[in-house]
Amino acid sequence: MFIHRYPQKNKWAELVKRPILKKEKVSEIIAEIFKEVEKNGDEALLTYSQKFDSAELNTVIVSQNEIDEAGNSVSDELKAAIQKAKENITQFHTSQQAGIQKIETTQEVICWRENRGIEKVGIYIPGGTAPLFSTVLMLAIPAQLAGCSEIILCTPPDKKGNINPAILYAAQLCGVTRIFKAGGAQAVAAMTLGTESIPNVYKIFGPGNQYVVAAKEYAQNYGVAIDMPAGPSEVLVIADEKAVPEFCAADLLSQAEHGSDSQVIFISTDLKIMEETIEEINQQIKKLPRNGMAQQSLDNSHFMIVKTLEEAVDFSNVYAPEHLILAVKDFEKYIPSIRNAGSVFLGNYACESAGDYASGTNHTLPTNGFAKNYSGVSLDSYVKKITFQYLSKQGLKNLGKTIEIMAEAEGLSAHKNAVSIRLKK
Amino acid sequence: MFIHRYPQKNKWAELVKRPILKKEKVSEIIAEIFKEVEKNGDEALLTYSQKFDSAELNTVIVSQNEIDEAGNSVSDELKAAIQKAKENITQFHTSQQAGIQKIETTQEVICWRENRGIEKVGIYIPGGTAPLFSTVLMLAIPAQLAGCSEIILCTPPDKKGNINPAILYAAQLCGVTRIFKAGGAQAVAAMTLGTESIPNVYKIFGPGNQYVVAAKEYAQNYGVAIDMPAGPSEVLVIADEKAVPEFCAADLLSQAEHGSDSQVIFISTDLKIMEETIEEINQQIKKLPRNGMAQQSLDNSHFMIVKTLEEAVDFSNVYAPEHLILAVKDFEKYIPSIRNAGSVFLGNYACESAGDYASGTNHTLPTNGFAKNYSGVSLDSYVKKITFQYLSKQGLKNLGKTIEIMAEAEGLSAHKNAVSIRLKK
């Protein structure tokens, strides 16, 4: 934990630095995996599952029977929670649907956009200790709303060759069309290249370890789009004298428990609030099952005292956090000043967990400073916006001269002629 | 020119193939250029200008004096045309501005999105024979509308060290904040890394040759976003018996004149229309100054006769053209079936040139089949959509149980605790 009192602006560049991700090392491994999957398809995936997941599989396909059984083994309580979250996520993402708005830019020249779902999308859900069924909701719900016709999901099996039932339940609930047992870079390779069982897709979504991240980048060489570049998860909490140290500590810890590379930043205008928050962290962390990871993350965290909330927001804009919690009284006042952030949580009761699971916003957000140039996942991530234009004969007459003059000035005679020949007719 | 009569569906995969772009060769050159620009900044740019543009420069900065002089040397007629185009482009892109829509997903749980312009963007405009001031309009107007605070433009100088006046005029008219004389991969490197004169930016837009395209891809390794992946320009024209062969020929030629690698496809349900279109092409091409390039492009073009317009649209969806012209009578009928295209031109008077210059739609569009998973440039390309949420104490009470159950099922106790600790208070 690093504590900074009134850090100078010229120190900020140092403070906003993220850990450097080593890419070079894995790139050869990724290229090899893609080559293997391209050559041997499903067979390659089964061999990798044996190697990396210690699972003996006959097929990568998850059967309808497995999905039905999963439905039976998820508790009614969890099902109800997942359904409630689904409702809210659906409601918020439905509000992102844009109607068709026809604009007559010049008389009888009419332009508009229409959205079309990307036909085939792939969702990757990591395995490991935490079964991230919440990410299934976040990535499948907008895909279905967007009208994507093929929504496939790949996730690694456990040692017995099974997928966590909550993942299967969420997937079928949210319109995933096919589920496959495949993990890591090889799953990304399969969704990029296609195998006998797994169709290739046009865009790949979802989190993962450094191999998955590198594989998604590599997939772009094959013309596949990805949701966004990735990095470790982050939270920046800004607290004034009305913040509640217990709550701040809990929010910082909920970020820290993600992993030892999680980024945690706390900025306050109030020394007492900061001291109490640190004290609270030291108390609360003891009770956490994942306290080892949380402690490692906290060891690298920054706690800052600044003079004004304006300065805190300025720093946040330079850092560009994935999650920004404004635990301040007059949060409305600071909203217009927020320029770079993935998702913003306002007041003392908007904890990050709300957005992580169930409030309705998407939890797939730009990390690593990418909030400066990328948005989080939304309905937009699943559609292409196609422009349309209709010009009547009169419409072209109204605009023709303008086009002819510009085309000529650019030295593109055929462009000009496409207008002239019509005007002459 | 390849002519296909009623091609079988199993031949389509062959017909939609794009020319393969050789990437490998240039990647070492790009890496070297980035290293050079990182090390020597402006000095490297001046040396490259000498080498590649045969221009002796003292500075890469375009002075206000040069911009003012450019204004004087552009004809009033061209100025008026540029202003008219600017009006239409502004009107259409303004219509893409999304208002704030607050959604109460659960009682007292309120979620919304707000747009923020990407703070620093860079526009690349190629040099060469055609001064692409129209691309300045297409890339700077939405940047200004989005509220990007720094909008820089790089373009190579001619041998005398000058920039085409129409480019300078359009840039200052559309809110470009700074203009630099730098071309090719080195300009992209400068906008990525920054030099003494050129600020680094968060997103780079604009067309270019294979070096520029490769440099934009390479820039992503430094966390810079780009507008979209690139390839040669394309048009697909669908014509029924009501199409006008003269117009179709003119549209195909206006695409073909872009360059020898331009992709041109013509599909008709009417043999006579196709034959007359080919005849018209042979007549019209004679009068074109760029007929050498156009002929090379046409040599690789496909002309197809199909049985129905539905089949033509199906083929188009598989090809995913940058530009799709529906020169058919009942074009409305086919709009819902269009799934993959960059921009669509409807009827006999909506020529591609209209959208290239002045109707209001953006002409920076996905090529090379990327219309399957990417949209063209729009206002969206210049903003981040930040999600916000406010939960009152009661709001968290209403949703808390759902969050707690899900967090627990994912094994993330600290996430659960961030809710529990608030509900207990």
TrEMBL record, chains A, B:
<keyword id="KW-0560">Oxidoreductase</keyword>
<dbReference type="InterPro" id="IPR001692">
    <property type="entry name" value="Histidinol_DH_CS"/>
</dbReference>
<keyword id="KW-0862">Zinc</keyword>
<feature type="binding site">
    <location>
        <position position="255"/>
    </location>
    <ligand>
        <name>substrate</name>
    </ligand>
</feature>
<dbReference type="InterPro" id="IPR022695">
    <property type="entry name" value="Histidinol_DH_monofunct"/>
</dbReference>
<protein>
    <recommendedName>
        <fullName>Histidinol dehydrogenase</fullName>
        <ecNumber>1.1.1.23</ecNumber>
    </recommendedName>
</protein>
<dbReference type="GO" id="GO:0000105">
    <property type="term" value="P:L-histidine biosynthetic process"/>
</dbReference>
<dbReference type="InterPro" id="IPR016161">
    <property type="entry name" value="Ald_DH/histidinol_DH"/>
</dbReference>
<dbReference type="Pfam" id="PF00815">
    <property type="entry name" value="Histidinol_dh"/>
</dbReference>
<feature type="binding site">
    <location>
        <position position="356"/>
    </location>
    <ligand>
        <name>substrate</name>
    </ligand>
</feature>
<dbReference type="GO" id="GO:0004399">
    <property type="term" value="F:histidinol dehydrogenase activity"/>
</dbReference>
<keyword id="KW-0479">Metal-binding</keyword>
<feature type="active site" description="Proton acceptor">
    <location>
        <position position="323"/>
    </location>
</feature>
<comment type="function">
    <text>Catalyzes the sequential NAD-dependent oxidations of L-histidinol to L-histidinaldehyde and then to L-histidine.</text>
</comment>
<dbReference type="GO" id="GO:0005829">
    <property type="term" value="C:cytosol"/>
</dbReference>
<comment type="similarity">
    <text>Belongs to the histidinol dehydrogenase family.</text>
</comment>
<dbReference type="GO" id="GO:0008270">
    <property type="term" value="F:zinc ion binding"/>
</dbReference>
<dbReference type="InterPro" id="IPR012131">
    <property type="entry name" value="Hstdl_DH"/>
</dbReference>
<feature type="active site" description="Proton acceptor">
    <location>
        <position position="322"/>
    </location>
</feature>
<keyword id="KW-0520">NAD</keyword>
<keyword id="KW-0368">Histidine biosynthesis</keyword>
<feature type="binding site">
    <location>
        <position position="186"/>
    </location>
    <ligand>
        <name>NAD(+)</name>
    </ligand>
</feature>
<feature type="binding site">
    <location>
        <position position="258"/>
    </location>
    <ligand>
        <name>substrate</name>
    </ligand>
</feature>
<keyword id="KW-0028">Amino-acid biosynthesis</keyword>
<feature type="binding site">
    <location>
        <position position="258"/>
    </location>
    <ligand>
        <name>Zn(2+)</name>
    </ligand>
</feature>
<feature type="binding site">
    <location>
        <position position="323"/>
    </location>
    <ligand>
        <name>substrate</name>
    </ligand>
</feature>
<feature type="binding site">
    <location>
        <position position="255"/>
    </location>
    <ligand>
        <name>Zn(2+)</name>
    </ligand>
</feature>
<feature type="binding site">
    <location>
        <position position="415"/>
    </location>
    <ligand>
        <name>substrate</name>
    </ligand>
</feature>
<feature type="binding site">
    <location>
        <position position="415"/>
    </location>
    <ligand>
        <name>Zn(2+)</name>
    </ligand>
</feature>
<feature type="binding site">
    <location>
        <position position="356"/>
    </location>
    <ligand>
        <name>Zn(2+)</name>
    </ligand>
</feature>
<feature type="binding site">
    <location>
        <position position="209"/>
    </location>
    <ligand>
        <name>NAD(+)</name>
    </ligand>
</feature>
<feature type="binding site">
    <location>
        <position position="410"/>
    </location>
    <ligand>
        <name>substrate</name>
    </ligand>
</feature>
<feature type="binding site">
    <location>
        <position position="124"/>
    </location>
    <ligand>
        <name>NAD(+)</name>
    </ligand>
</feature>
<comment type="pathway">
    <text>Amino-acid biosynthesis; L-histidine biosynthesis; L-histidine from 5-phospho-alpha-D-ribose 1-diphosphate: step 9/9.</text>
</comment>
<feature type="binding site">
    <location>
        <position position="233"/>
    </location>
    <ligand>
        <name>substrate</name>
    </ligand>
</feature>
<dbReference type="GO" id="GO:0051287">
    <property type="term" value="F:NAD binding"/>
</dbReference>
